[in-house]
Design goal:
Elements lengths: L4 H4 L3 E3 L4 E2 L6 E2 L3 E3 L4 H14 L3 E3 L15 E3 L7 E5 L4 E5 L4 H10 L2 E2 L11 H6 L16 E7 L5 E5 L4 H7 L8 E8 L1 E2 L2 E10 H14 L2 E6 L5 E10 L8 H25 L4 H11 L3 E6 H5 L7 E9 L3 H14 L8 E6 L14 E9 L5 H13 L3 E2 L9 H7 L3 H11 L8 H7 L2
Parallel strand pairs: 4-6, 5-6
Antiparallel strand pairs: 1-4, 2-3, 7-8, 8-12, 9-13, 10-11, 10-12, 14-16, 14-17, 15-16, 15-19, 18-20, 18-21, 19-20
Helix pairs in contact: 7-8, 10-11
């Protein structure tokens, strides 16, 4: 008796319980979940879904706040598609399976004496999830994780495997590096890497007015600059990361635990819980929180400096603006909070990125600054996020694809010059919308 495609899958089951994202704000109930162990099994799963008229979505660790991965069809879990396929030391690239968590990739690369050039501040996501939504860190010259891709593999709606690079299927490569899961299922990614390097981090409190006045200079003088402003205060914490010849001088174990776990997670979690229960105390708590972390300098391998543990759960919205608009927009956010009854317990984060050439990258074609706002999980966020979004869209802002926003395809067609290029490619690769869901219908159109 011949085997059906379903019988070839390593793991498949009916979805008896709903899927929820990391923040808990998105829930969906897929018809079934599939855990393919190979590209062939994945292609079989997509063909079988098509035969049944089911949609297909892939989910990594669920760190998106939007419903970008939600489906009532087949949910692909890439847990078994992990690990490094190959390292090419002549080309200085690494090819990795799509379901590999960034934290495992970083450790494995460091063991081989290699590193990504830049990354975000958390490393829980899978490589495909992080790149498909445009995850980024901060950098004067080095861009998002997706901008470091040199080649990718994509299984399309008809079950075919495409290899995409600047030389092979270049029109797909131009879009699929940040593909939102709309063009197919990414199965492997080849990243540019470089020899492992050290970064010296300099963390320093500054006043809001000083950071605002010196923002352009701080950006120009440092390879990686970011800062956090604490609403209801005049206080910011700044972080400058620059390459170092060494020697390594990581934070002491006790001091690192105090700063990164006790204060940044434990005490902050408690302050957020108190603020959620008794909002009027938030401004007072903010004054204490903003002074809790003192200046420090340390040197370590790159991924240990770029990333930080994030154990306090929250809701987030982030907008990418032309970099020259960042300070004006932030001042507007500050004025809005001061004249409103809002009580905001989370700091506002500001980062930068150079322009890149990816069709739907938030930094596509322009020097970019990112302004991210957060609220503690369970805190009503609509009024705050709506007011901030109004400011950001006034500056032509582009929302992060994996973070909360209310924009739609009509808006994106105005702020992304290459939006039509992406949607035309989608029409060609997925004419039946096998990879669609409600979120993609809103942001890309029907």
């Amino acid at each position: 008796m011949s085997r059906t495609p379903t019988q070839r899958w390593t793991s498949t089951r009916a979805a008896n319980s709903p899927w929820r994202n990391w923040a808990g704000n998105v829930t969906s109930r897929p018809a079934r979940e599939v855990r393919p162990a190979s590209v062939e099994e994945l292609a079989d799963a997509i063909r079988a879904a098509a035969a049944e008229g089911l949609r297909v979505k892939t989910v990594g660790t669920g760190h998106s706040f939007t419903a970008i991965a939600a489906t009532d069809g087949v949910l692909i879990r890439p847990d078994l598609l992990t690990g490094i396929r190959r390292i090419d030391r002549e080309a200085m690239t690494v090819t990795v399976e799509s379901g590999t968590p960034l934290k495992r990739l970083n450790v494995a690369l460091a063991r081989e004496g290699l590193s990504l050039t830049n990354m975000g501040d958390i490393m829980e996501q899978t490589v495909a999830g992080a790149t498909s939504t445009g995850t980024h860190g901060t950098g004067r010259d080095s861009a998002s994780i997706a901008a470091q891709i040199r080649e990718l593999e994509l299984v399309t709606a008809d079950g075919q495997l495409l290899t995409c690079s600047e030389k092979e299927n270049p029109e797909v490569f131009a879009a699929a590096r940040i593909g939102l899961g709309a063009l197919g299922v990414v199965t492997a990614i080849t990243f540019a890497v470089e020899p492992v390097f050290l970064l010296t981090a300099r963390e320093e409190p500054m006043t809001f007015d000083r950071v605002a006045a010196e923002f352009d200079a701080l950006h120009a003088e440092n390879e990686h600059f970011e800062f956090y402003w604490f609403p209801h205060t005049d206080n910011c914490n700044t972080k400058r990361n620059n390459r170092s010849a060494g020697p390594a001088a990581p934070p002491g174990r006790v001091s690192a635990w105090i700063d990164d776990e006790l204060l940044s997670n434990g005490v902050f979690q408690l302050a957020c819980s108190v603020g959620r229960a008794v909002p009027p105390v938030i401004p007072s708590l903010a004054k204490v929180s903003s002074r809790a972390l003192s200046a420090r300098t340390y040197t370590d391998i790159a991924y240990k400096v770029f990333t930080s543990p994030r154990r306090v759960r929250f809701m987030e919205m982030e907008y990418a603006l032309p970099r020259e608009a960042a300070v004006a927009a932030l001042r507007e956010v500050r004025a809005m909070i001061e004249r409103s009854p809002l009580k905001v317990s989370f700091p506002v984060e500001v980062r930068t990125a150079p322009a890149d050439d990816i069709a739907l990258s938030t930094a596509s074609g322009r020097e970019t600054a990112y302004i991210a706002v957060h609220l503690y999980k369970g805190t009503p966020h609509r009024a705050y996020f709506t007011a901030v979004e109004r400011i950001m869209t006034g500056h032509g802002g582009r929302p992060h694809w994996g973070k909360l926003h209310t924009r739609d395809a009509a808006y994106f067609s105005e702020v992304y010059p290459r939006f039509a290029e992406f949607t035309e490619l989608r029409d060609r690769l997925d004419p039946e919308r096998r990879f669609a869901n409600d979120y993609l219908r809103r942001v890309l159109g029907a």
